[in-house]
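Why do we bother with holo predictions? Because pocket geometry can differ from the apo form. Keep that in mind while you read this record for pyridoxal-5'-phosphate.
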Amino acid sequence: MSERILLSSPHMGGTEQKYIKEAFETNWIAPLGENVNKFEEAIQSFTGANAACALSSGTAGLHLALDLLGIKAGDIVFCSSLTFIATANPILYLGAIPVFIDSEPDSWNMSPQALKEAFDAYDKKGQLPKAVMIVNLYGQSAKMDELMEICNSYNVPVVEDAAESLGSRYHGKMSGTFGKFGIFSFNGNKIITTSGGGMIISEDEVAIEQALKKATQARENVLHYEHKEIGYNYRLSNISAGIGRGQMEVLEERINQKRKIFDRYVEGLSSIEGINFMKELDNSLHNRWLSTITADAEQLKISARNIIDRLADYNIEARPVWKPMHLQPLFADADYFKHEQDVSKELYETGICLPSDTKMTEEQQQYVIQKIKLIVNH
Ligand SMILES: *Cc1c(COP(=O)(O)O)cnc(C)c1O
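The structure, written out:
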């Protein structure tokens, strides 16, 4: 096997170029056009959200969500610690102060117990957060019913980072539709891609109209260029949206493929003591964007990091689980609330994201499984 086996790469469905061609033929290259509207409609009808606004990235969506919630310099924002930096950076863009919340072991996502402790502590100080950012990691929804109950009891809005969990369901409801705002990413490695892009959704149509305004430089509705508030240049292009339209047609197929990839890993590796798989919560659907495991170094006699390095020797791309925000030098001063033991730190130290590319052949995946067995001496 000489070809590199990838973690997750763009996988076109076939109709993307048709929509791009239409954009060229009508000269709707930029800024807007039918593809943008149709892509938004597709996300709306797929998720059941009332309104959606297509953006240049998921990060832009997170930034807009916090801005629309009125987050200002000095405000407190609670945020999942175990995530990609893109979740937390927008807190800093606005000069706000992040407080990080640990994961719990079932979902790898925000611990309701740690969140409750953080609320108690900040309530006592008279410094309740202005928002809570909850991440749905690798496609698994967080325990949204418990988390929403806590946030609602303090009347604090939730921003749901569903960048990795498009198409996942929790208690019958689509991931991304639980908070005041939900955000998706269409970056190149996500379950579907527009080469780069994002979407913000909400039940609140007026809020999404405001998002659209802010994403287009917050121009007032008059002929001359009039501005009353801060704006950004965050809109998705009509060309990129054309890719998104095509990708929406194969989203369910991609989810099924991702889930099948996960099942094959379970079949091939679950007999190995010391390897454990990320769970799927009851009454939920995990899109299995990335197949993730933990590797117990004592039982396996080799660390997760060494397994990843050894796989690289075979031209197989595996990655550690995200390094938690509370361990990042950028956030050295930030406050942090642990679950009991430090779950996100443990997941970082033992976690491995395995190749989950939907273009990977079954034969290639068997090769990955065989090499893992060889590396852990099984
Ligand atoms: C990819 C990702 C983002 C950011 O999305 P971009 O479109 O790359 O800006 C945010 N949060 C999480 C958890 C992600 O995985």
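The chain has two domains: 16-248, 251-375.
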